[in-house]
Amino acid sequence: MKKAMIIYNPTSGNESGEDYANKLRERLIDYYENVEMKETKKEKDATNFAIEACEKSFDSVFSIGGDGTVNEIVNGLVKSDTKDKPILGVIPGGTFNGLARVLKIPQNVYTAIDELDFSKYEVLDVASTNGDIFTLNFNIGDIPESLQSVSIEDKTNFAVLSYVVNAIKQSTKNTHHNLRITLDDDRVLEGKFSHLVVTTSSTLDEFDFVEEDVKRTDGNLHLLLFKDSNFISKLSLIGDMIKGDVDNNEEIDYMKAKKIKIETLDDEKVKTGVDGDISHNLPVELEIIEKAIKVYTLK
């Protein structure tokens, strides 16, 4: 008997999470004999539901929520001891929906539900930071601070615009962090950097940021080190991201590694972020987890 689990955040889409889940269930019952709906009420609920889906041999798990809900589910899938994991379906019900954007899944929830193909999937790498799993990117710099300063009300009312406005506010700062970065236990970099981004692929959000032909899942972490933090440099970076020319920007160092350790050389408390949420303070250890999950793609 084929089984599917829908894990949904009821606050998704201006409190429309349950409506989205019911709409998805209407489509799934044509493909699965059993469809269970699980509502998240507190932190880690989605992780525990995903572990339950693994233990009970569900064929598929569907996420309705934002990047935080997706990451909780992926944590459950990756950390489960079961061999055969459910395939993940991502329905974008959050503010930014990073993984959905990378997979080219429509941002309209109902369109996404209609266009997912339950016979096609892609295998993705994920990564860990101090043992916690994330799907797309880790960052240090203005971005974590701008995310933390966005209120829940602004996230709901203004969506991506709230992040952009806060990021622009933070861009007037000239903050640098004195860091030691160790790549694969044998390459060590030390210096002051304004930003640091580590991604699980050569794609950042919807942009392929390097010219070289790198598959989205290539078994490496991709490290971007930003040397300067002035506003003009940041505008230049945005342009190079759109053109896929980040690796030729003189203000950015680009490297690949399987493991990356990041430490602060000062006494300051350095915040980090993953996939739109606040994460651990430094020090952190990042590691790629190859071919960790299967995700449904479009028709």
Automatic annotation (TrEMBL):
PROSITE patterns: DAGK. It comes from Helcococcus kunzii ATCC 51366. Residues 1-133 form the DAGKc domain. Keywords: ATP-binding, Kinase, Lipid biosynthesis, Lipid metabolism, Magnesium, Metal-binding, Nucleotide-binding, Phospholipid biosynthesis, Phospholipid metabolism, Transferase. Its cofactor is Mg(2+). The keyword Lyase does not apply. NCBIfam families: YegS/Rv2252/BmrU family lipid kinase. One of its GO terms (biological process) is phospholipid biosynthetic process. InterPro entries: ATP-NAD_kinase_N (IPR017438), Diacylglycerol/lipid_kinase (IPR005218), Diacylglycerol_kinase_cat_dom (IPR001206), Lipid_Phosphate_FormReg (IPR050187), NAD/diacylglycerol_kinase_sf (IPR016064), YegS/DAGK_C (IPR045540). One of its GO terms (molecular function) is metal ion binding. The keyword Nucleus does not apply. Belongs to the diacylglycerol/lipid kinase family. GO terms for cellular component: plasma membrane. SMART domains: DAGKc. This is YegS BmrU family lipid kinase.
